[in-house]
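Box 3.1. Reading complex inputs
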Amino acid sequence: MKKFVMIHNENLCIGCQACSVACRNENKVPDDVYRLQVHIKMSGTFPHLKSDYTRHSCVMCEDSPCVSVCPTGASFKTENGITLIDDRLCVSCKYCILACPYDARFVDPITKAIGKCTFCYENRLLEGKEPACVSVCPTDALVFGDALDQNSEVSKLIAKKSIEYPKAYLNTKPRLGFIKNTKGGRYE
Ligand code: SF4
Ligand code: SF4
Ligand code: SF4
């Protein structure tokens, strides 16, 4: 039994989008839809600009609205807490897309299947590899691992840093957390 968690350290992120490109390549995500984007927000006035980088993808809610509303069981949780979709059971009602408070799901324009981040479960995790986005990040802004293993990098990070969770007030208990940018941006 594992509890997979991902942390995005916004202090280390440089907004390069290597993660989203790697995700697209690894998971054959078509143009016009995405499993992952890093949103870039600029503020301030030149030359005192501030840049914030936030990750937008499925947050792997422990209490997933997408799973609760699915009428066929196509949206389900693995024992490791990863929310997945069984295409064979999906009837394309799109309830899950409407129910997701993180706008993380989409209809694949080619296959018409429902898509979202899977933490690269079938294609990488089951082979003992870390998710594609994590593996390419040049600044180690993404940390992934088993939060039940006290010696894992992700456990040590959680113990050391203040981790925040997107829309925590919804109580969906995300397993994608972030370390808020406190450095004032790279260009300030
Ligand atoms: S690859 Fe790393 S540094 Fe680049 S945008 Fe993604 S998380 Fe940020
Ligand atoms: S972020 Fe959306 S798609 Fe992901 S588990 Fe939560 S409700 Fe489901
Ligand atoms: S974990 Fe995999 S599917 Fe999810 S954003 Fe990263 S590369 Fe894409």
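In summary: The chain has five helices and nine strands.
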